[in-house]
Amino acid sequence: MRSLALGLALLPSLALAGVFPKDSMVKMLDAKDFRKTMKANETSMVAFVAPWCGHCQRMAPEYSKAALGLHPLIPFYAVDCDADQNKRLCAEQGVQGFPTVKMFPRGAQHKPIPFEGERTASTFYYFVTRRVPPSFTKLPNLDDVLPWVERTVSKTRTLLLTKEKKVPLLWKVLANKYDGKLEFGTHRDKNGKTSESLGLEAGEKKDSKVLVYSEGSTAPFRYEGLNKYESLVKFFDSVVDGTADITVANAQAKAEEYDPTGEELEIERKKEAQRMALLHGGYADLVDFEQAILDGAGASFHDSNGFGSQPPLKKKSTTATEEDKPAAAAEGNVPDAEESKVGKDQTEL
């Protein structure tokens, strides 16, 4: 039996002394790590901080909550601008006050977007999840599927059949990661009619299917592995690599089993509880989401409780104080509240 490891329990301490919590999912980068990270086609958040910065210390728990809730889909990083080896990088990034937080939509390929909202976990969450570049094609109707398949026949394509109204965050992240390497499509198959037209079962209420069309073919085969980030990345890497037999890769994906340890289950439960809290913003203080997960209510919590949008955030002006600025820095960032009307964004298919 093969186990799909979450990898969380094996991660080393990533905390910057005096800033991030010991068990934070925020990964520290030096200048070399930063440039290597930016070569990847990934959406990420980067906080430029200093260990003596009071605002950084107050932000760290909220930034860490967002990092936990979005792991492993969207990585959260931090750079210590007080370290000599990072000062040039921080100057290149225009850091004039601490903390300076930026979203990088697709590594170095897209211009970074400064974060200027309230430094809360929910605000970080909504800010980054709404700005993942749309690298997929939406196919609203059944009649749109075949033309898309034929139009892109010179490429390897993958199509998500989902019953959800919104495109899952996981699919957005994967499409962005493999942009230019695989062609991604998504189709809402609400009643399962498209599945049946392709010779597949209609499926249950929230069943999703991932289909793959090999280059030059208009006949799909169904991905049979786990609909989780790590499993899909492993499979798509095999497809992109071109050296592996896709049929064999699919068989290997099918044989992969999710067999977590007790420690991994505990971490996964905390991740899911944090996601629920982030999605519900201000409700986090009213509902014990971790207890809801323990009580088995996680799968249907949104449907039965009706919480789907982040409550409006109040505007807050928190200009950095003198202690939070480098000696030659200009005025720090003045955060402006992030307006949000976003509902649930799934992290699994």
Automatic annotation (TrEMBL):
InterPro entries: Thioredoxin-like_sf, Thioredoxin_domain. Residues 302-349 are annotated as: Disordered. GO terms for cellular component: endoplasmic reticulum lumen. Residues 14-133 form the Thioredoxin domain. GO terms for molecular function: isomerase activity; protein-disulfide reductase activity. PROSITE patterns: THIOREDOXIN_2. PANTHER family: PROTEIN DISULFIDE-ISOMERASE A6. This is Protein disulfide isomerase. It comes from Mycena chlorophos (Agaric fungus).
